Amino acid sequence: MKNKHAVPALTSLPQSPRAEADHRVHRYVLTMSIRIVCFALMVLVQPYGWYTWAFGIAAAVLPYIAVVFANAGSDSTETVAESPVQQLESAPPPAVTADESDPQVYTIRERGQDPA
């Protein structure tokens, strides 16, 4: 019996480059939006205290985090390459019946000399 391999599923394919780039841009924009909010809260919240420092540190560190996340890619798991060739079980070949009443035999005879 032949080995029966699983059919490659469409969901096992990696994300398209355009979709991955869009996903990374959305993550970058979200992180930078949080940075803007932290910066605004640092300036606008009164009286100044420990939270002012927390918002300031977040506003200073978030650009680095945004760039690292944007360059990291969306899928950190390793995808397994699947062969596009699929081995399927086939039906057994039809039985060949030999008609022995009229066998066709072809005989080829060659001469050992080259014609000159």
Report on the structure:
It is rod-shaped and about 110 Å long. Helix 1 (17-44) packs antiparallel against helix 2 (50-72). By secondary structure, it is mainly α. Helix content is 44%, strand content 0%. The protein starts with 16 loop residues before the first helix and ends in a 44-residue tail after the last helix. It has helices at residues 17-44, 50-72. It is built from two helices and no strands.
Keywords:
rod-shaped, mainly alpha, 116 residues
Order of helices and strands: HH
Tally of individual helices:
2
- The assembly state of the depicted protein chains is single chain
Largest sheet: none
Instruction: Give the overall silhouette.
Output: rod-shaped
Strand content: under 5%
Q: Spans of 5+ residues with little confidence (pLDDT < 50)?
A: none
β-strand number: 0
- Rg over CA atoms: 36 Å
Structural class: mainly alpha
